[in-house]
Amino acid sequence: MSGGAELFALIVDQDTATGLLLTGVGQVDIRKRANFLIVDDKTSQQQVEEAFKDFTTREDIAVLLINQVIAGMIRHLLDAYTKPVPAILEIPSKDAPYDPSQDSVLQRVCFMFGES
Amino acid sequence: MTDSGQQGDDAFVATLDAAQEYLAAQAALAEALRAGFLSLAQARYSMGADRVSALQFPSHMRASTRLRSDGVELSLAVADPAAPSTSAQPSPASSASGGWAKADAEAPAAAHSSNGSDNRSSGGGGGGEAGQAAHGAAIIPAAPVAAQGGGAAAAEGLDAQLQRLRLAAQESDGILQSLAVKYGCSDGGGANAGGRPDGSGGGGGGGSGAGEDDDYAEVPAPGRPLSWFGSLVAPSLREAEAQFSDALSAAVAAANAQRRVRAGADGLRGSVGGGA
Question: What is the pLDDT of residues B196-242, one digit of tens each?
């Protein structure tokens, strides 16, 4: 799509994926390159890490939505992530509500306030 | 107070404000997601768990909801899911205000020039052209081939395409009449199946298919992700779609607030580092 329009990326569970894909954010091209990863019990941490690295290096992705529970699996990658684009947004899942104390962005800000 | 101190204070206040906005956006996002999950569960209960699951996702899909950046903030850009990728120009929607603007329909058709061969085979091209004529409607399901999920519609006749056009253009009788005239189809539906793609003949009658319109009132426009889950979906699934759309708007607002948090934190780090 022209005009600089960028995509969402999703690393979420099935319920969240079903709901968000209903809004039309999903993209799977002819080469089977998708902008989402559905994480279930059989998804390994390595797969999640690879998806995170892939989505954060693609130029056509502006925002990455990730369930906070799944973000906990790759917290070390999120804490080390400093690029402004794509923005990493931790969202709640059906089973786990949003916990601000675990959000990497807010943690970094709190740490910085501690420094200053 | 030195300049660096003043800058540090400004960055501190800006970061706090941005963090507050971020938390508020996260709260709105969580609320919208919670409502969406509930509606999704209701839809699964009424339609069946397998019908509302990842099993229904097509192998190929094209994003109709994207993000547009003006360098400072992100905004949602919604395109007609049936529009071809080459010509679709999504119009930006308001982001933080929660607008779910639909782009004006543009050439929906030939959808996917990648599926052009199917479109051209049996009157599909006519449907594509018809779709182009239906410019301006909110969602135009004019593309004979569903945007996602396969080319089953390619084999349908012009009458079926006209019926789908009627769904989207129920309030645009003039468009339907012009299409019926152009392709020589009966506007009443089904009487004349021999429409010519080149638009010969005129047999466009008045719209007498009000009853048929009601029968198809619940059919989602082809190309919308809602169509993955069947032609007749539960109202709760439609509600879930709307609620997740609200969640998406809140997510965009949260992403914008996060940008400001990062920018404020970077400014604060710079002022602290400069003053040290």
Answer: 444 444 444 444 444 444 444 454 445 688 888 888 889 999 999 99
**Shortest CA distance to B228 belongs to which of B42, B35, B41, B61?**
B61
Q: Which CATH architecture has domain A7-112?
A: 3-Layer(aba) Sandwich (3.40)
Which of B26, B243, B262 lies at the smallest CB-CB distance from A98?
B26
For the entire predicted model, the pTM comes to: 0.64
List the one residue out of A42, A8, A107, A45 whose CA is nearest residue B248.
A8
d(CA B235, CA B223): 18
| Cα distances (Å, whole numbers) of residue B40 to A18, A22, A91, B52, B261 | 9, 10, 17, 8, 33
Q: Copy the structure tokens of residue B244.
A: 């997740």
- The DSSP secondary-structure symbol of B182 reads H
Q: What is the ipTM of this complex?
A: 0.92
β-partners of residue B104 are none
Separation between Cα atoms, residue A11 and residue A48, nearest integer Å: 8
Interface residue A41 vs chain B (CB under 8 A): no
